[in-house]
Amino acid sequence: SSPSYQLSIGGMTCAGCVNTVQRALLSSEGVISADVNFANHTAQVVTKGSPDALIKAVDNSGYHASLIH
Ligand code: 9UX
Where found, per UniProt (predicted)? Predict the structure, then answer.
């Protein structure tokens, strides 16, 4: 199976932002699944691509991501 990464997501000010962040992650190269949690300000992402690509995709959509582990 592909590796899973947990991201901290900054800038989600209402629950609708979850959809925007999820679309950004799913559009990133190699992403298989993306679950975004508004309450925890996190995302769990399974991808064949690099975690750096995930961070760039989120940042380019107007939010801020950092890798937790
Ligand atoms: Mo809520 Mo997020 O109105 O882009 S959807 S702040």
Answer: Cell membrane
